[in-house]
Amino acid sequence: MTGGRRAMTKVLILTDGKAGHENQSRAFAGALGRGCEIAAVRFKSKFHKALSYCFDRLGVRSEALWEFAPGTFSGAGRPPAGFKPAAVLGTGSGTFYAAKTLAKRLGVKCGVVLHPRGYDLASFDCILAPSFDNPPRRGNIVETPANLVAVDPAFYEAGAAAFTARHAPSARPAVAVVVGGPNKCAALEPGWLKAELARVFAETTDCEHWVTTSRRTPPAAERVVEDFSWDYSLIYSRDRFNPVPAFVKLAKRLYVTADSTGMLSEACTCGAAEVVALDNLKPGPSKYRRFLVNLRRGGYVDGSRKIDISGEIERAKELLGL
After folding, report:
1. Mean pLDDT of all residues in the chain?
2. 105 and 16 share one domain
3. Domain identity same for 82 and 219
4. Contacts of 314 (CB under 8 A, 6+ apart)
C-alpha cells in the first residue's frame, strides 16, 4: 500500500481511439511484461489541446483540459477510488498531456510512445521514440528503429489459420504484396504501381503471388492490382478481412509500399520473410525517407534481418521503475 492506494501489476493505457496508436501502447505494455487497462481520453476542444502545450511548458498539470470518454472504467467515466496502476502509458498527441497529468496525480511514472513535440520532454519519465522522428538525445528518450509492434506468436498463428481457411497455399514459396496509399510524402500513381507489380512478377516466376490493398488504396490503384493474375488477392474496399498476419508469417518475401511506417515496422519485426520496399515516396527529405534509409542501412529492408528492441525495452523498464 502506498498513500492508501493498492498498487497494480497492470499498466494503464490512455488511448486516443486511433488503432495505430493504441496498438503501439499495447505492444509497449506487452514488451514490459505487463497486462493493461485501457481508457479512452480526449481533449475537451481544440482550444484545450492548444492550451495544454502552454500549461505543460509552465509546469501546470490540469485535468480540466481533457476528459475520459464515455464508457471508460466500466461506464464510470473515471478511475475507481484507490486505483493505482504500475505506470501510465500513451501514444500520440491526444494522450501525452493526459498521461503525464494523470500519472502525477496517481503517483506513478509516465511512459509515452512517439516524439511528444511541443511538450516539456524532461518531465516525461520515459519516451520511446522512433529514430525517424529525429528525437533529441536525452536520458529519458529511448530510440527505436521502427514503430512498436507486438510480437505475439499466437496472433500470427491465428491469422495464418484464418487465411488458409480461405486460401490453400500450394507447395510453391509465396511472395506477398501489401499496397498502401498516398499521403503528403508518398504518391501511388497507377502507372508506377503497374510497373512495380510487373517487376515483382518477373522476379518471382516460381512463386505463388498474394496481394492485399488497404483502406488508403485509391480506386485507380485497386484497378491496377486487379489487372494481374494473383493466386490470392484481397481488395480492402470490398472485403475487410486482414491477411497481413498470414503474409508476415507465411511468405518467403514481402513487398510493402513505403508509405506505411506501421506496415514496414511489422514486416521488419515479425516473421521470417525477406522485406522489400516498393519506394513510392516523393522526392525530398521526410520522416518516411529517413525511415526507409535507416531500415535499409540496418539490413531490415532488402534483407531478412529482424528488429530486436529487447535492449531498448530493458532501458524503458529502468526509467519506469518496473
Report:
1. 93
2. yes
3. no
4. none
